[in-house]
Amino acid sequence: MKPPVSGLLPPIPTPFDEHEQVAPGHLRANLERWNRCGYSGYVVLGSNGEFVHLTESERWTVIETAREAIPEDKLLIVGASYNATRDAVDFLRCVARVRVDAALVGTPSYYRDHITPGVLLDHYRKIADASPIPILLYSVPQFTGIALAPETVARLAEHPNIIGIKDSGGNLATFAEIARLVPSDFSLLIGSAALLQAAMALGARGAVLAVGCIAPDACLEIMRLARDGDAARAATRQLQLLPVARAVTTQFGIGGLKAALDLLGFYGGPPRSPLPAPDERMRAEIGAILRASGLFPELEAEQSCTVS
Q1: What is the pTM of this model?
Q2: How far is CA 280 from CA 16, 284, 296, in A?
Q3: How far apart (Å, rounded) are the C-alpha atoms in residues 63 and 84?
Q4: Angstrom distance (rounded) from CA 228 to CA 45
Q5: Using only C-alpha atoms, what is the Rg of the chain?
Q6: Catalytic-labelled residue, pool 2, 126, 166, 258
Q7: 166 is known as an active-site residue
């Protein structure tokens, strides 16, 4: 049996200071607060972690800081989305020196026209053969332009060191077909908050969601209700979560997620250029969306005090 990855695992942002330098102290403080939530672990250096914006040295700063701050009973999953197969292999051989539970490996994308299903099979198999730690596939076509086809995922699931997938494609039919084709011990993780309820009902083991960084209780409740077959209550919470999830992904992006963290008493800070930071108008709109959701009573109380 492959080691399962399950539960809610937020893909945490990499904090930068006002000069866009990595701020390990803020990362440590955020994790100390997040550790009180019901997460089963964390993903660092994913898309929300701005992996593509970091130097190798900065990536190591993030990994080492996270490893020190994350308790032993929570998973640490590290992003390793390189365009070159050998770069991913070299990175993962180094990562194995730290206690990391799995690596999240995105599709190579720069030479997109030449990244065929056969190329992807070869790429992932070479990485999995050489990696000392288990591999999670990562399909995020909105960033890469490449979606892992269900048939490709099924063939890769045969590899003993490829243990699951984070599917962020947002296509329920694709997710359902992957669920149909892969073995029962393959960890299906949904990466699209809009599909959380449906994915859990289809057999997802867990979720890696940007909105999970700010609304863990709602995400965990939807997951539990969907697993228990309480579709009506799960749908109510799902609809409540959707505007918040949209705000910190497609609507305002990583800058929006960081602004929401600032509003909730975490450290968000700026994204790294050229990603835009929300201006004051956008921050006010994000705050209004969070308050209107009913998921953040601390913000509603704050507004009430301001009004009074």
Answers
A1: 0.95
A2: 19, 6, 20
A3: 21
A4: 32
A5: 19
A6: 166
A7: yes
